[in-house]
């Protein structure tokens, strides 16, 4: 099965799922002597698309210096509850994106027999741990007293610190396995697309989470943003590894960069745990 057919199967799967959910409708038409299935959005699908555009605009509008006052007050006038709500939205987006990325990567990796793509998907699931902790941290922001919020923030910082080590241990295992077995990068169209999308989405997400964490003085959200930054490093590592292997046959570039990323993860883990204790 070629990569093109694999990509087509995944696309058809998602189209069928959206049609079954009532967001798309399809009909068959004869075009140039061939029967084609054409998809159009339903009223529910159009409504979902409008809402999705609003959420994306709200999430990324600040980056492109649009008038963010349309959605939130100017930063100096933002109420703490609005910042907490923003942190919660960013956390939900992080977990949702990573889970979707993980499902697509693992599924495509199994179908294509790609160990690298499957491992990339498992990375995504592990990355969602930090986002899950942030959802727990900010989900009751409007119901906590100042003392309760301080305690839950301290606990969240400690938990995020542990996730750095969990993430780092897995990346270290993957990197040494690739070096030991002399595993060359195994490019697939879907894997490359996922890596490119991550290098576009994750830096924006890191910036928004880091800035929100600074505004809230939330050490846990700032630490979580650095795990998001690690996702950028891993995606770049994959793309750089593919490029160096193709141009110079440097098959070990990807795992070598992975080991450097592990050092970053362990360092951030120690610093985060230290902040949790302090």
Question: Any overview of this molecule?
Answer:
With 278 residues, this protein is mainly α. The chain has a single domain (62-277), classed as Cation efflux protein transmembrane domain (Alpha-lytic protease prodomain-like). The chain is built from 8 helices and 2 strands; from the N terminus they run H-E-E-H-H-H-H-H-H-H. Strands 1-2 form a two-stranded antiparallel sheet. It starts with a helix and ends with a helix.
Please give the structural blueprint.
Layout: H1 3-20, E1 24-31, E2 34-41, H2 43-60, H3 80-112, H4 115-138, H5 146-180, H6 189-216, H7 219-248, H8 253-277
Antiparallel strand pairs: 1-2
Helix pairs in contact: 1-3, 3-4, 3-6, 4-5, 4-7, 5-7, 5-8, 6-7, 7-8
The helix tally amounts to 8
> What does the main sheet amount to?
2 strands, antiparallel
Low-confidence runs (pLDDT<50, min 5 residues)?
1-8, 71-78
Number of domain units: 1
Structural class by sheet pairing and helices: mainly alpha
The name CATH uses for the topology is Alpha-lytic protease prodomain-like
Give the overall silhouette. flat
Q: Give the C-level CATH assignment.
A: Mainly Alpha
State the CATH superfamily name.
Cation efflux protein transmembrane domain
